[in-house]
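agent> Task received from the user: take the single chain below, predict its 3D structure, and emit structure tokens. No templates, no multimer pairing.
agent> Plan: (1) validate residues, (2) run structure prediction, (3) serialize to tokens, (4) report one or two observations.
agent> Step 1 OK, no nonstandard residues flagged.
tool_call: predict_structure(input=
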Amino acid sequence: MVRTVFFVSESTGITAEAVGQSMLHQFDGVEFEKIYLPFVNTEEKAHKLLQRFVEIKEQSGTRPIVFATMADCEISKILRKGDCLYLEMFDTFSIILSEELGVEPIFKSGQSHGITDDYESRINSIHYAMDNDDGMRMDKFDKADVILVGVSRSGKTPTCLYLAMHFGLKAANYPLTPDDFEKGIMPEALKLQKHKLIGLTIEPKRLQQIREVRRSGSEYSSLKRCQTEVKMASAMFKKLNIDVLDTSEKSIEEIASRIVKTLNS
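)
tool_result: status=success, residues=265
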């Protein structure tokens, strides 16, 4: 079964995505095609989105699922009329909380995740994560809050972006390469930032499955190479005595939360 899921918001969509993803993880046996639509902040955009709902229903035979944080009541009314399962995050708790507090919610744009307070910081962190992906700017590693190290396809990039978006952390990452394994040591730029390093490891069979999707039948995705790289990476982590997290069966949200806990310990 494949279902199309939209994460929709009048702002960045961080809350809609975080809550929606957490809920989807509870349903095994269903494949979700995920579409992220931040800044749906005009009625024109809302009406165009309704048309996409219709097209998806016609193509797939099932209506899309929509996780939304829509502060604008008029735009929300438009989307609720669409051929979809519309799940408004504000609806879930705002009425109960309002009754408890004795105060009406303001439903102000951008307030769904407190982004007015740290918006610029998070945007800067996102840019940092993108600019320092895959060791592209090792000369900027001194600016990082955390540096993730691991073999290719062990979850470094999505975790860095999640740390930036949800925690405002400047997260860089470095992929261990055959050259690094041949030398048996990490680059000097990494060793200088040892206190910021966290190693990501993964079960070789799981790594093979992930690499097969990217380069099916290649030497890069062979089980033998995956086993060798994971083993050599683990030896490097042990040599530097850095914290290591296994990403094999964990969601990006869980990996990021564990990293934050490690940083705060």
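agent> Step 4: summary for the user.
The beta strands are 2-9, 31-37, 65-69, 85-88, 146-151, 171-176, 197-201, 243-246.
agent> Done.
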